[in-house]
Amino acid sequence: MSLFREAARQIFRKPATVKYPFEPGIVPPGLRGRPVWDMEKCILCVLCQNACPTAAIKMIPKGPDAGIEYHLDRCIFCAECADACPRKAITMTNNF
Prior knowledge:
Radius of gyration: 21 Å
Distance between the termini: 43 Å
Order of helices and strands: HEHEEHE
Shape: elongated
Number of strands: 4
Strand content: 5-15%
Mean pLDDT: 88
Strand order of the largest sheet: 1-4
Oligomer: single chain
């Protein structure tokens, strides 16, 4: 009988879940989302590549095509690359 009583009480309560695709989720402060590079500040020092534990970052230092190759499927969002950057060219976003 207590199962029926519990089900009757839950009918009048607000749902505990969020309708994510239709309503934006609540992002907690300090979330380590996808890293973003500011290439204006980047000096291609390779410290972020060396600090990445999963080798998700690869530097391409070849002339005018110099840049960063980032593998999102390997990234564990640990923010080690952002901590290692001396120019603070890498920031962690709230995108998850």
